[in-house]
Amino acid sequence: MNIMKTMRKDIIFQPKGFLFSAVEAAIKKPGRKDLALIFSEIESVISGMFTTNNIKAAPVKLDMKRIKSGKGQAIIINSGNANACTGRQGLMDAMEMAEMTANALGIKTGMVYVCSTGVIGTLLPMERIRPKIKELADNLGKNSINDVATAIMTTDTFPKVVSKRIRIDSKTVTISAICKGAGMICPNMATMLCFIVTDANIDKSALDNALKKAVQRSFNRITIDGDMSTNDTVLIMANGLAGNALIEKNSKEFDRFANALSDITYELGRMIVKDGEGATKLVEIEVKNARNEEDAEKGAFAIANSMLVKTAIYGNDANWGRIMAALGYSGIAIKEEKIDIFLNGLKIVNCGMGMGKDKQANKRLKGKELKIVVDLHLGRYAAKVLTCDLTEDYVKINAEYRT
Amino acid sequence: MNIMKTMRKDIIFQPKGFLFSAVEAAIKKPGRKDLALIFSEIESVISGMFTTNNIKAAPVKLDMKRIKSGKGQAIIINSGNANACTGRQGLMDAMEMAEMTANALGIKTGMVYVCSTGVIGTLLPMERIRPKIKELADNLGKNSINDVATAIMTTDTFPKVVSKRIRIDSKTVTISAICKGAGMICPNMATMLCFIVTDANIDKSALDNALKKAVQRSFNRITIDGDMSTNDTVLIMANGLAGNALIEKNSKEFDRFANALSDITYELGRMIVKDGEGATKLVEIEVKNARNEEDAEKGAFAIANSMLVKTAIYGNDANWGRIMAALGYSGIAIKEEKIDIFLNGLKIVNCGMGMGKDKQANKRLKGKELKIVVDLHLGRYAAKVLTCDLTEDYVKINAEYRT
């Protein structure tokens, strides 16, 4: 267990009017909390972003419909089972979870959102979930947001929680967020669940906008294995209990809120990559001076997803040829003779050719964090992507049934 | 060494008028032959296909210019160094290799093609290559095509040679081919060199056409790690010494020749995947009844390149949820509720849902070869892709410098 080593020691602020609860339902196996509830004492404004995978889990389908109302009050989450590829029964199970939760809380069913994460293709053990929902509602307030963060973990090795306080017209506004990551992480928020709660008083379209921006530069710029999941969901609930004047788009207050939200999701994104399955290194890849932002992003992702680059980094091998090859097949505009590459600030490629500094560079690879900068010298656009190395442990974790 | 276990025992036919040679030049390290020559006694018609990576090795750039003449007589190949990302000096080295070879053989420089494979970003050790070129020419005829196949190996564990004889207007026409593969194998022939020699008398545009077809359904439909190299080259020389009447397009003779060539490249493609770095299983993935061939191919590649699918296969884990997820993010047209999936003939997914046959399916995964069929029930197009599993050994091989 490296939970204690890597868990953040920051104080976690709790926004007003939110309560949390987590119980054990033995969904995959007994011995851990795997069913959790987030509840706002009053109806909240809600925004969400969902997987772009064409195969969507049942709860994702449900939430995508529900979120059109713009309102929400509770989120029930289970780990251990994704409720994906489960057909009509899966959808009925998700709806039943929402309905039972609404009844236990005395709120409307449409106010309850459902999220699941875990194995695909197995029906939820509803017989074990049903009897626990009352307990979940009764426990509200007895648990903290950290307990929910722990309950939603799958192959994560530590819970991920970040919070921030900002002042908006002399009121204290709190934003707190949790997420889970680990495997199947790739652009577009793959196998990731993220729940953000805030007591900010904010207009629905401003909230949508702030969330979209935050996700674009954080969760959509991380990759572990290039696989995108069926269940990715980011939900943010804002209940307005901070008492600030309504935040609307195109205002200083909006910018302050949106920046704080972006900082939070960026930090959560870093935590997810740090905790990538089997990962030993956190790697930031920046492609700069590209012809346009799309090229910069595509180039950075090609490098970040290259199995050969990822294994070289694991091997402390400054094999920049693999970086060049990935850039080459990414399909973006490049001029080989203009490319410079830097490893943690050390220039190792100049005008497309090695500088004979491989031994020095190999040493720089031995740290836990690595920054690769590729300068294309073609334009003025840049993009950064976070990834991790590829290790034997990644294979072991994902080939767990090997006999 | 598992060379003896896996090497094909077939008789290798040699086409008329071709001579082979291989010597030791200690390009990367001493103790093995790493410089080879293929020579036709008379000028040949030549066709080629090259990497689509925007970063191309120096010899690739040279050959792409040279092949416009449509003629060739010799190919010099080195392993241990890719002569890629080596700037102007790299191009001069490739040209010098061609020129020295032409001089030693007494032919025109423009008739010599150069291929390199190995590490990117290091200049060729020309001081060790130069003195060996004369020896290479002198040895012609003392070595066989198998010796060339062995000399071009990098991380390959066995040489790859296939040959075939066909009758064309009562003449015997022989086609023999060798290739190397191993890492950086992905669509578009990544880090692969393939040399085909034939004594067929064939028209240049017919040869181009037959090669393109053969490569499209073989080397362009295999993937090991999704990485595409800077050096991929397929060259075919036809010297006409079989004495058959000229083969032209749109004839029965052309079809016979093209089919034989396709069989050869398909067989070589299988060998490359079987010999994928660290691979323990050969996996054929077929997506059928897609809306169009592009969708079928894209879907099959998404599954074949998924690290989660590849590790599950390694782990003998019939985790069809990972197959569904890969299909979902491939971006092709699908209807979840129409998808059927078969593992070695056993139906495990029916109408998008599991059939509870996971234990039976896990057993079927224990063999060395696996066939996954995905039926989309949307149209009538299909595509097959060959790949292998992802193992700890792949990571070890590619993180070799780890200390």
Describe the protein's architecture and organization.
The structure is a homodimer of 403-residue chains. The first copy, chain A, has helices at 3-6, 58-66, 87-105, 126-138, 145-151, 204-216, 252-274, 293-305, 307-314, 320-329, 358-364, 392-398; strands at 18-23, 35-50, 71-81, 112-119, 160-168, 171-180, 193-198, 233-238, 282-290, 340-343, 346-350, 353-354, 369-375, 381-388. With 403 residues, chain A is an alpha+beta fold. Chain A folds into 2 domains: 3-274, L-amino peptidase D-ALA esterase/amidase; 282-398, Roll (Ubiquitin-like (UB roll)). In chain A, strand 3, helix 3 and strand 4 (112-119) form a beta-alpha-beta unit. The two termini of chain A are 24 Å apart.
Share of residues in strands of chain A: 25-35%
Report the largest inter-chain contact: A-B, 68 and 67 residues
Query: Could you state the oligomeric state of the chains shown?
Result: homodimer
Mean pLDDT of chain A: 90
> Given the helix and strand composition of chain A, which structural class is it?
alpha+beta
Rg of chain A (CA only): 22 Å
CATH topology descriptor of the largest domain in chain A: L-amino peptidase D-ALA esterase/amidase
CATH architecture of the largest domain in chain A: 4-Layer Sandwich
Please give the count of helices of chain A.
12
Number of strands of chain A: 14
Total tally of structural domains of chain A: 2
Q: What distance lies between the first and last C-alpha atoms of chain A, to the nearest angstrom?
A: 24 Å
Helical amount of chain A: 25-40%
Which spans of chain A have pLDDT < 50 for at least 5 consecutive residues?
Answer: 1-8, 184-190
